[in-house]
Amino acid sequence: MALQVCALNLDQSLRELQPHGTLDFPCAGYASFYTRKSEAGILWHWHEELEIIYAKEGSMQFKVPSVSCQVQEGDLFLVNSNILHSGITENTCFLQSLVFHPDLITGNQNSVFAKKYLLPLINCPSFSGVLIPKGECPRVTDAFCRAFEAMEKEPFGFEFTVREKLSEIGLFLAEKFHEDLDFTNHVQSQDNLRMRRMLTFIHENYPEEITLAQIAKAADIGERECLRCFRKTIQSSPIQYLLKYRIMQGADQLLRQPESSISEIALSCGFVSPSNFAKVFRRFYNCTPREYRRDAADPSRFPAQNLIR
């Protein structure tokens, strides 16, 4: 099967390191089931490839800079190249997704497909992420489902089917954002670049005592601009994000380090005391750290422990 194992392997800039597909066929398909306790859901990250996500069952809240939307069963969510994105579910969700490099469609950056359509699209300031509700554009949903089925079953010539259907979706996006396509500007959003630097600083230093001033300095901006940037892009304050990230790291360590005590994990994640860690943990996961670790041993109560890209 061409479907790959879901994993999230990031470098220090939050760029995903896992290759999606191969050099000669740069596309990968993923299927993953999530519950509210599926570790951290989909962490903030980015990759050079475009991504198309289909909610097969349930729903998940996806975020890209300045946009947050609930993807319900039957909806598609499309994420542009090099855009930070994350997701979390309140209940359960089964997702199918395709992650592909633009070269799969264009062949190379000098082709008419690249110059006229894909490069302007991936540099379009209006396209970071777009929701296609169930039934709104059946031809796009059908194109995704047929491409995903081809990736899953791998019939003879499936690569042609995948490229054809992803090309149809690429053309749909180029038509949708035609008036906003940027044929000259290849500079990424300043806020997007700033957020990568500040989130990277938090991810590298979360066990330490971190101040707002330090987070702002990571992007060479002032504290007020830092607050504005966080509110605009991920709808959270820097300190709120830091607290959530610490808790998510704590939840991950509870499962991956069974030999470590809850007190040790609390301190390693930047909490001043185990009681404070337990209090905040309950707020996020609706259970104690001890209960969370115990439930992980029961697959029927904690069925998913893997992250998609």
Would you mind describing this structure in some detail?
This protein is an alpha+beta fold and 309 residues long. It is built from eleven helices and nine strands. It has a five-stranded antiparallel β-sheet with strand order 1-8-3-6-9, covered by helices on one side. Strands 2-7-4-5 form a four-stranded antiparallel β-sheet, with no helix packed on it. α2 crosses α4, α8 crosses α10 and α9 crosses α10. The protein starts with 26 loop residues before the first strand and ends in a 13-residue tail after the last helix.
Question: Outline of this structure?
Answer:
This protein is α+β, with helices and mostly antiparallel strands and 309 residues long. It is built from eleven helices and nine strands.
Name the features:
5-stranded antiparallel sheet, 4-stranded antiparallel sheet, disordered C terminus, 309 residues, alpha+beta
Layout of helices and strands, plus pairs?
Layout: E1 27-35, E2 42-45, E3 50-58, E4 60-64, E5 67-71, E6 76-79, E7 85-88, E8 92-100, H1 103-106, H2 112-122, E9 129-132, H3 138-153, H4 158-176, H5 190-205, H6 212-217, H7 223-234, H8 238-256, H9 262-268, H10 274-285, H11 289-296
Antiparallel strand pairs: 1-8, 2-7, 3-6, 3-8, 4-5, 4-7, 6-9
Helix pairs in contact: 2-4, 3-4, 8-10, 9-10
